[in-house]
Amino acid sequence: MNSFDEVLLLLKTRGPQTAQALSGLLGMTSMGVRRQLEAAHEKGLVTYADSPGKVGRPVRRWLLLDAGHARFPDRHGELTLEIIAQVRLLFGEDGLNRLVKAREVAGEAAYRAQVEAVSGLQAQVAALARVRDAEGYMAEAEMQADGSVLLVENHCPIRAAARSCQDFCRSELEVFGRVLGPGVSVLRIEHQLAGARRCAYRVGAVPG
Question: How far apart, in Å, are the Cα atoms of 198 and each of 39, 159, 181?
Fold first, then answer.
């Protein structure tokens, strides 16, 4: 991966960043990072926002635009939208619900096989994150100070489909809950379709 793509990947997975922060993460000079950011800006892939700094000097943070997000795979979004439209036309909402359910059943079986192979909440969420990462979600598990685990998905490879049919998102949340078990709470706290840069789920033991 070249330095241009590495800069975009960090903006994708870590959100808005200063050129200085990116240079530290990449081991590049700030000037080198700025050249990559300016090139991405010229291509319409990134933009920036300035905010006041501690000594009055503005701090510039760079972030991806929609065109930048689109450089990451979306599982043939146009074809998926066409299929969804055709299913609705031919079989109605009931047919689309059956399609979502079939995908849910297949996904649940794959996730359960990985999660049940390990024990402990952190290990199980990490196993789920690995499966989701392999599916293109750029997923990771982050242990929290309160004992919960954050399941983070920095990318949605079915974003176009989810926008057209939000039952895909509802279905995934329900599958996570069933796979991790009745004693576990799964709460979506960030959602890309609601404007967040990523999807994030707080996973913890059910109180009581």
Answer: 24, 11, 24
Give, for 205, the enclosing helix (H) or strand (E). strand 199-205
Q: In this structure, is the dihedral angle defined by the CA atoms of residues 44, 200, 188 and 119, taken in order, positive or negative?
A: positive
Q: State the burial class of residue 182 (Cβ atoms within 10 Å of its Cβ: 0-12, 13-18, 19+).
A: exposed
Can you count the helices (H) and strands (E) in the chain? 8, 6
User: Could you tell me if 72 and 12 are in contact, meaning their C-beta atoms sit under 8 angstroms apart?
Assistant: yes
DSSP state of 59: E
What are the pLDDT digits (tens) for 86-120? 888 888 888 888 888 888 888 899 999 999 999 99
Q: Which residues pair with 48 in a beta bridge?
A: 62
Q: What's the pTM?
A: 0.72
Structure tokens that stand for 158 in this block? 């079915």
